[in-house]
Amino acid sequence: MGCQKPVSTEGAFEFLFDEEPVSARKGQSVAAALMQAGQYCLRIDEFGVPKGAFCGIGFCWECRCRINGVSNERACLAIAQPGMRVETQEGLE
Amino acid sequence: MSPGHVAIVGAGPAGMSTAIAANKAGCKVTLLDEASRVGGQIYRRPISDVVAASFTSRAEQKRKAGLLAGFGAIASQIHYVPEAQVISAFAGPELQYVSNATTHTLRPDAVVLAAGVREKMFPFEGWTLPGILGAGGAQSILKAQMTVLGKRMVVAGAGPLPLVVAAQMLRAGVDVRALALLNSLAAFGRRPLSLLNGYEAVLDGFGYLATVLLANTQRLKRYVPIRAEGRRQLEAVTLARVDAKGRALPNTEKTIETDVLALNYGFVANAELAAMFGVEMKYGDLSGWHPKTDAFGRTSVPGVFACGDMAGLRGAFVAQSEGSIVGNAAARFCVGDRPETQIKETKTRARHQRFQKVVASSLTLPTGLWDLSLPNTTICRCEGKSKKDVLAAFDQGHLLINAVKRNTRCGMGWCGGRSCLHTVSHMATLRTQNAPPEPMTARPLARPVSLADLANAVTGEADAT
Fold first, then answer.
1. Fewer CB within 10 Å, N side or C side of chain B?
2. Per DSSP, what are the bridge partners of residue A44?
3. What is the pLDDT of residues B297-355, one digit of tens each?
4. Is A19 on the interface with B (CB under 8 A)?
5. Is 0.90 surpassed by the pTM of this model?
6. Under a CB-based contact definition with an 8 Å cutoff, are residues B135 and B264 in contact?
7. How far A63 CA lies from chain B's nearest CA (Å)?
């Protein structure tokens, strides 16, 4: 049970989060790639509260964000693609 | 005579083995699952095969490979629909699901619900901060995406999962700054004979414990998070020691800087579809409201079966042997036969169930945990409702879950109450000192879907099945 680090640059690419480039690997969800990059906040809800991935598996809808211009996409389920545009969502959209 | 059609909801260990058994019995099988690949939450597989590293025990990998191979052998003979959202359940039985932005209707001879469980967390000050998430969710992301969610992590919870997650994160190179367990794992040792029933899980457990001990991870016994701080995301968590009733003890607070707080205080059954079918429900401290089933997975509604964790929390081992039993019973129901006892599977299930009783004791939560939050702490994350909103509804005499929902909007947001209603239920129990008298009424649609998806319905398909 040695220490295996999951870090690999193979299949790496970039997508945009609020205009800034973020590195991701093939098969990573948008939420996973962002959290690995230290970005946890994906939405400011209608009450002004910052929100991010909470259940991690799709039932809570807390990680809603805008992906390629489409609002309310779940970052924990959406698979990151090269050149994707991801944006923090604000309020009800 | 046609051997009939069995539709299964959920492709975890229970749903997969149900599919294998029903296929073997000659039935037409439809398997609907929300994920993009089979395996459920426990047997998660990397979406990408770029990195093949694994953090689970060898024994678990072997069990997973065995089930996946068994399923692989029948996959081409069944109708397996990944990324399917089951939205409604009606008498008949009839199921509606959305797949590829299209709504489909199924009228099978029997339905087997194997929808599993979701994680249970209790609210505390600051718990909505980004960076705080389910330990099982974080584990799924590690297993499926080979991704660690932060450099520094605190893992907190009850039962065996937090230990497993802490060990797997350590093996993946995360700085696990503390492992806070509500109940001592030493409790397992008090019933050594019961442990033998679950020797597979116990062996895995020793491996995970060894990892945590070797890493010299700070272990905080009977500590729970009471406050999280950060501006746009989590920066630090404060934990406190609690007494036997779950009340925070003064002068025990510890503040730890961290990027991620992974939490698991047990599970809640995904019982919405069972409730929609109108089956008789049962309340359990372990996983809340769930369908009442007999030894063959039969619910009170003929033709509707349930198995695995959603029919009472019992773990993956029980789920897998139960799937075989229930798949067989459902197939026999289709042709009007009574179920037959499968001696080997029933014995295996009974052995694992004995072990699960020991595990259950470590998942019993003291009621005070549901009262650690402050008046302004959010309870319903979707609708932004706080503890004082819920208490105000209680003061007005609304103590039933459906009444609280109508009067506060708790549970009426995007998640459909999956994140907060168990908390409301526990808060009401704390107030009345009585077990909750009724489950939440479940109505279509079980998932938020767009009107366009609903309008885009496939007609004529149901009759063809």
1. N
2. A50, A90
3. 999 999 999 999 999 988 888 999 999 999 999 999 999 999 998 898 899 888 888 88
4. no
5. yes
6. yes
7. 9
